[in-house]
Amino acid sequence: MIKKIFSFTFILIFLIFSCSSDNDDSSSEVWEQKSEMLTNWADNFIIPSHSTLLNNLVYLEGAGNSFTNLPNQQNLDSLRTVFINAYMSWQYVEMFDIGPAEESYYKSKMNIYPTTISRIEINIQNENTDFNNSNNYSAQGFPALDYLLYGIETSDELIISKYNTDSKYLSYLSEIINQMLQNTYPIVEEWESYRNSFISSVENTATSSVNKMTNDFIYYYEKGFRANKFGIPAGVFSGGALPEKVEAYYNKNISKALALESFQAIKNFYNGNGGVSLRQYISEVSTAEYSELSTDILDLFNIAENLINGLDDNFYNQILTNNVQVLEAYDAIQQGTILLKTDMLSVLQIPTDYVDADGD
Predict the structure, then answer these.
(1) Domain limits of the chain?
(2) Residue 295 in 3-state DSSP?
(3) Which of 267, 219, 285, 218 lies closest to 31, judged by CA?
(4) Which of these ranges, 134-138, 287-291, 313-317, has the smallest mean pLDDT?
(5) The domain at 33-202 falls in which architecture?
(6) Which of 16, 120, 152, 333 has the most CB atoms around its CB within 10 Å?
(7) Which residues contact 6 (CB under 8 A, 6 or more apart)?
(8) DSSP for 124-167?
(9) Is the separation of the CB atoms in 260 and 308 below 8 Å?
(10) Average pLDDT of 184-212?
């Protein structure tokens, strides 16, 4: 009898140990995969995207210096070209509101639109360059440059004349570009040390890197892309179209290009571009109920992108002439929001860390 009890106890302990060992192995594999995904995000997306933006801002500074030294049509055209290049590269950065960027309110200082013209004009006349004041977040960055390069007068001739006759405008232009560089340098530098803690944070907690970055990605898709670039200008949340709220309002012809560049950044991040990605991770952890989820998300991305490609290059004109098409694109993007925010987070067992205030 004692022998039987001993044998039963031994078997029970063995089974418990074996199950525990299997769980540890499984947990270890998941943690390793998360670490590989975070490494891919850091080394192939976050760090190089910020570096590209910084390089383009350095070029912007050079073109800005040429224009402030000699405000003429040639230098204005050159400055505008470099500005657009930098604005395009920003589309690959804005979603990464994590770590150093989150702590410094980076995206709020770089791309709040529409810009506040009254604040800009007051700042120019008072020579106020306190850009760390939250009241001035909407009077700096890319939208403020959009106004200063395209909107301060009704023609290029009058814009150039204004800069030649009022040096305060030249000073404010230079200060904004300089501030954009000062906003970006610390982000690039701090990622050198922040990278290691970022890729080692694999726990399933509210503050872990995977959870925070996944939420930031969805938040950008839902707010920065869906709402800001389409929903708000099209009047989804206001009951009436607000075309003046399009991105790059003063150079309206690049609003579609900026949106498509942003969507490319979203798709690249989701697909991983050869590294461990959200798409791959979803496929590996999905249950039978969600077996097609990773592909369904990409299919919806492609549908939405095709609808955006069918819009006018100038979103302002598009909203005024045929807003229904913008609303159709918005609806397709919104379907992606549902899959990302509801189904994907459910599969990945990641809770939402922000509150949706759109009422949609």
Answers:
(1) 33-202, 203-360
(2) helix
(3) 285
(4) 287-291
(5) Up-down Bundle (1.20)
(6) 333
(7) none
(8) HHHT---TTSGGGGGGSHHHHHHHHHHTSSSSHHHHHHHHHH-H
(9) yes
(10) 95
